[in-house]
Write a structure and sequence with these properties.
The protein is mainly alpha-helical and 462 residues long. It is built from 19 helices and four strands.
Length: 462
């Protein structure tokens, strides 16, 4: 058992206790960040005269060789080490001798793991942001192609008013845009360097924490050493933001699952993102959408678990906080996979425009516009509402839509109706006359799409 401590102890740790305490099985993900942090720390120590330039160069060479050997597979990260920090330091000492023993000067595993987790999280936030941006680009392409794809808009899962597929997908564009903004906000707030905080009270060595922060591309050092090693707020914020991403994906998936059903038939999911049944040959199941919806609870669980872990921990570092890693790793991997698969699914999905339009007509989504027609001809709105309600009841009884009624049938309910009622309640008219910004009309959608394009061009990647 390779440990960085032991002088205080007179006998070996029980193997079961050691295994329970060890984190190497999951914090080995940090090997790159641990070496990156160690390189910056050594450079700072040399700049401060705490190490010689020769010692610096020897340690840096050893760290580089460890990184190279891990990445080419000649050096395995095994569970004989307690954690990734002991793995790196023990191998460094084996390779460069006594100089390697000076690597840990002026730091603790507490500020070291705090740094590793921040570096790792920062890298992952940027990757998630890139995946969200690609999803937004995919949505924008679909929006541009479907500004005249008419479909019913829903409230209470009941057909309400006509809209377009572009407008519907545009709602999700706004959701995922806010998700990107949350990622940027978390990254900005967390980007302070904890290294140099020691176990909880700093160190007596003359460290240059500003230099360390600069070398690691942080905005500066953290300002309280106790908070530095005990802070997991940024992980809770991230898990909250990831839960929101998954909530948005899950809502979208729920709609696609409905739209893919025989009852709706709005979409056809590509074969690559569907599965069949082992017994029913006719089935084509939306498994990817269902799995994304299902994995949402997994990410929620990580958030609640970390909140629960942190709620009773006194300052400063406590071993409970080791529980942050597996939860966060799993949530990050889950969200990344879900975003990538969802983007692929919608980019290959085909839309049944004829079915969507027919559904909008048969669902009386133009009833409000028929009432507006009456109002524009001097009928009080409350009376117009009642007249069109009777018309809808009549159509339901006849099994027809409003636009299938004869003019005589219209006039039988209200003599105000004239031939131009058909133009007034056409789906195209119903949508096109909604021109306020944010509405589904063509001109409004064109303006929004241009704004979204500009947003994607200007934001770039984190």
């Amino acid at each position: 058992m390779a440990q960085l401590w032991g002088g205080r102890f007179t006998k070996e740790t029980d193997q079961l206790v050691y295994n329970f305490n060890a984190s190497i099985s999951f914090d080995k993900k940090f090997y790159l960040q641990d070496i990156e942090g160690s390189r910056a720390h050594v450079k700072m120590l040399a700049a401060q005269g705490i190490l010689t330039e020769a010692e610096r160069d020897t340690i840096l060479g050893g760290l580089d060789s460890i990184l190279q050997d891990v990445e080419n597979g000649t050096l395995k990260i095994s569970d004989k080490y307690e954690d990734i920090h002991s793995f790196v330091e023990a191998n460094l000492i084996d390779r460069v001798g006594d100089a390697g023993k000076k690597l840990h000067t002026g730091r603790s595993r507490n500020d070291q793991v705090a740094l590793d987790m921040k570096l790792y999280t920062r890298d992952e936030i940027r990757e998630i942001d890139g995946l969200l941006k690609k999803l937004l680009e995919t949505l924008l392409t679909i929006m541009e192609e479907n500004m005249e794809t008419y479909m019913p808009g829903f409230t209470h899962l009941q057909k309400a008013q006509p809209t377009t597929l572009a407008h519907h997908f545009g709602a999700y564009f706004e959701m995922f845009k806010r998700d990107r903004q949350r990622m940027a906000d978390i990254l900005k707030r967390m980007n302070l360097c904890p290294l140099g905080s020691g176990a909880l009270a700093g160190t007596t060595y003359a460290l240059d924490r500003d230099l360390t922060a600069e070398l690691l591309a942080f905005d500066g050092p953290t300002l309280n050493s106790m908070d530095s090693v005990a802070d997991r707020d940024y992980l809770i914020e991230l898990l909250s933001a990831l839960s929101t991403v998954m909530m948005h994906l899950s809502r979208f998936c729920e709609e696609i699952i409905l739209w893919n059903s025989n009852e709706y038939r709005f979409v056809e999911i590509d074969d690559a993102y569907s599965t069949g049944s082992s017994i029913m040959p006719q089935k084509k199941n939306p498994d990817i959408a269902e799995l994304v919806r299902g994995k949402t609870g997994r990410v929620y669980g990580a958030l609640i678990s970390l909140l629960t872990t942190m709620k009773g921990i006194p300052l400063a570092y406590n071993k409970d906080m080791q529980e942050d890693k597996e939860l966060t790793f799993d949530a990050i991997d889950t969200v990344k996979g879900c975003i990538a698969l969802f983007t692929g699914m919608i980019s290959t999905m085909s839309f049944r425009r004829d079915v969507m339009e027919k559904s909008a007509k048969n669902g009386f989504t133009n009833a409000t516009d028929a009432a507006d027609y009456l109002v524009n001809h001097g009928v009080p709105f409350r009376d117009a509402h009642g007249i069109v309600g009777r018309l809808v009841l009549y159509c339901i009884d006849k099994g027809i839509s409003l636009d299938q009624m004869s003019l005589e049938e219209w006039k039988a309910v209200s003599p105000v109706f004239e031939e131009d009622i058909y133009e007034a309640i056409s789906l195209k008219t119903c949508v096109e006359k909604r021109l306020t910004i944010g509405a589904p009309g063509m001109e409004a959608m064109k303006k929004v799409i241009e704004l979204e394009k500009k947003y994607l061009e200007e934001t770039g990647n984190l």
